[in-house]
Amino acid sequence: MQHSFILKRHADLVDRMAEAQGVDLEETMMAGHLTPGELGEAVLACTGCAAPEACEHWLAAHEAGEAVPDYCRNSALLTELTARFKR
Q: Taking 80 as the threshold, does the pLDDT of residue 2 lie above it?
């Protein structure tokens, strides 16, 4: 049960961070630019973060379109997706 909660929390954080960058992960996957495996890896990378509260606070305090914080374990992926597929 705890494992399921952790995965859901971090999947939500990855999705919200992408949305804050103007990237729809579902559309990006449907277009073939992101595989389900790559998304899964991003969620797993996020679960390795020692302070997910930092992202939650960042998301609450920043407007859409601001650069991904450097401490995000998925900053490189999200920056790339933002540059290529921002809606």
A: no
